[in-house]
Amino acid sequence: MKMNFKKAVAFVFAGVVALSLASCSSTKVTRVDSGEVIDLSGNWNDTDSQQVSQEMITESLTYPWYAQFAAEHKSVKPRVIIGSVLNKTEEHISTETFIKDLERNLINNGKVTFVASKDQREEIRAERADQAVNSKNAKKQQNESAADFMLKGQINSIFDSNGKDKLKYYQVELEIIDMESNETVWVGQKKIKKVISKSSYKS
C-alpha cells in the first residue's frame, strides 16, 4: 500500500514538474516584411500567388487581342471579368487569394476596365435596392457594363521524391475568352519548380 502511495506521489510530482516546464516555455513570433520571400514547406504560398498573377497579367496585355481591341474601339478599354480558377493539385490552395491578386493587377495596370464578379454584382444590386427604399441619396440604377472578355484558368502540380529530396512542380494555366465570339484570344502558362532537401522537411 505504501509503495502504491509513493508511486502516486511520484506520478503527481512528475506531472507538476512537466506542467511547470511547459508554462516556462514560450512561443517566439517574429514579424517580417510582407514582401519577404519565405518558403517553409515548399507548398504554394503568397509569394507564388503574387508573382504569378503579376507576371501573367502583364504578359497577357502584350498580346495581339489587346492591341486589336484598342484599334477597333479607340479610347475604350476592354472590360474584363474573372471567372473560375480551379485548384487541380492535391494540396489546399486558396484560389480566392490568387483571384484577388489577379484582380489587383488587372485594376492597377490601368489598361483594362475590371467588371465585378457575379456575387459582387448581386451584392451591389441588393444594396442599391435597399438605398432606393431607405435613403434620400440613393444611387440611380444604371445600365451595367457587360464584360468583353473573361479570364479563367487552373493550377496543376506534379510531385516527385527520391527519398532524399522532394520536387514540387506547379503549372498555372490562364486563358482569356472573347465573350461575344467564345474564342480563346490568349493562353498563358507559368511554371514553378521547387526542390526541397530532406533537412528542410520532416518525413
TrEMBL record:
Keywords: Lipoprotein, Signal. Gene3D superfamilies: ABC-type transport auxiliary lipoprotein component. InterPro entries: LpoB (IPR014094). Residues 1-22 form the signal peptide. Pfam families: LpoB. The keyword Nucleotidyltransferase does not apply. This is Putative lipoprotein. It comes from Endomicrobium proavitum.
